[in-house]
Amino acid sequence: MSVMAETTHAAATDPAIGTLLTSLEKPDAWSALTADQCVVVREARRNFDRLTRLPAAFVREQALEASRSYHAWVAARENDDFRAFAPHLEKQIDLARREAAHVGQGDAPYNYMIDKHDPGMTAQVIGRLFDELKAGLVPFAKSVLDSGVRPPMGLLRGFPADRQKQLLEEVARCLGFDFSRGRIDISPHPFCGGNGEDTRMTTRFDEDNPLQSLFGAIHETGHGLYEQGLPAEDAGTALGTAAGMAVHESQSRLWENQVGRGRPFWRHLEPRFRELFSKQTASISSDELFLAINAVGRTPVRVEADEVTYNLHIILRFEIEQRLFSGELAVADLPGAWREAMQNLLGIVPADDREGALQDVHWSGGAFGYFPSYCLGNMLAAQLWYRALDFLPGLEGDLENGDCSLLLGWLREQVHAKGRRLNLLELTQEVTGKPLGPEALLRYLKERYGPLYNLE
Ligand code: ZN
User: Which of 6, 43, 65, 220 is catalytic?
Assistant: First the structure.
């Protein structure tokens, strides 16, 4: 890993790139560029400057430590031994600070880490958005969790993996995924990688939890649709690159939640679901099944969380990252701080650190400032959804007929085709007509979950 990192770094910081950029930035040359070409040069300059400020030895050390830290995390999680992982986490925070210092942002290392994932975002902006979200979401989540309505999860058992695979391929195709430029395979943890010409998605199958596999696959398909929608002719430049992690996540979440878990699309999907799994679903009513796909429950584990409580898991991580970077929280005290925050936000305490501070892979690889993008993506997804409903009359009828082309076409034009021309905040304003905020997400959650959980 460290050899690869150093080799890639050497190529990306080749002085010839700097010479070319400088020549393009001269007033005569710059004024002859189109607006799009200016975006390409601007983003290339940003990347080049950051990378050239990182010494090769630092890049090597960082990759080596990330690899060591990952393996230490795997073992620590298995043994529920946070103390074995703590020195590695300290090292990762130190490396993040040093990286920020190398690029001249040593006074605000956490902001630097956030900006790496979502250009233009800061901890201050996120903190304000999350505080607003928290004020509405904590009481709402509590009322859903305490409603007494219990989704019938235990009824869904024995769904053969081969049929699950068949279903999700049909669904991915229905959403618009192009299998001539991508594929789905199996891995322990679902992800989507590659690029628009070769999009690789993975999923996993649990015979007793078919909904997790199905909606996980719809989620990854949303990522894949974004990659496939980026302008192919601009691949490799800012114009053909996703706008950032939050925008990426808005695409996966929109398809997974607003579309996939919504009534209209589920009306389309349910008959096929029952056809493929007739024995397994024979005793489950339609209402029960719809409640099951929109099940809300208390879990200490982020990746198992539903879309109501999920955002609370993210707020917890954001607040802890801020405290780790400000020095207010020592790594050694992290497990306790985690348990306390979990109790405050969700009213539960993890049984051990495997379900607490050791559950996520992100920090072991130095991916700080990454978690907020999941929640920012949820906010954008809800804003895009309401905008789409306004702009696309007949959208819900189309979805009920299994026709996703109208929505996909709109997202292609409004989001995918823009590449990295706009950052998260600019894109949200331009496409939805409003600044990024939690109002649409809260409205959506209340509209979806209020009736299902008998809330006023
Ligand atoms: Zn995702």
Answer: 220
